[in-house]
Amino acid sequence: MRRPEQLAPLGLSLVDRLLDADRPTVAAFRDGLRRDLEELLNTDRRVIGWAADLTELDTSLVNFGVMCLSTVNLSTEQRRAQVVEEIGDIIRQWEPRLANMRVSAVPNVDSSDRSLRMRIEAEILIEPSPEPMIFDTLIDPLGNTVSLTSARSD
Question: Whole-angstrom Cα distance, residue 3 to residue 11?
């Protein structure tokens, strides 16, 4: 598999081009990427595994999504850091439009808040040059939902 820096810059998906031909390219690309990341993070990965010799399934659509967030233990900082790292790995596996990605936990203001906040910082591989982007992410384990909002990058 080629490394992200070896891949050619990507354009809008076919769906995005058909739906919003009049929008500015960078804004449309950012919105489409946010939507696709939200779909990835709101899709529960299948629970039942497969035989060890079927290694191709690890990178197939059968394995698309994240662990069930309603059952994830987020009670300790160590476990929260592990979940953030796992989600970062999942995004790296399934989202080829991002390069130089960093995923970090954002502390909750209220200590009784059981949600997990993350910040995803990366470069979108788009023509003519990569575009920096930041998504603030809220994981609500009670509602088993993930929402992303685009933050301005500096």
Answer: 18
- In the chain, the domains with their CATH numbers are 10-151 (3.10.450.40)
Q: Residue 19: what pLDDT?
A: 61
For residue range 63-117, list pLDDT tens digits in order.
889 888 888 888 888 988 999 999 999 999 999 999 999 999 998 888 777 889 9
Q: What is the pLDDT of residue 105?
A: 92
* 96 phi-psi bin (left φ>0, alpha ψ -120 to 50, beta other): alpha
CB 130 within 8 A of CB 39: no
The answer to whether residues 120 and 138 touch, using CB atoms and an 8 Å cutoff, is no
Give the separation between CA 99 and CA 54, rounded to whole angstroms: 29
Model's pTM, two decimal places?
0.78
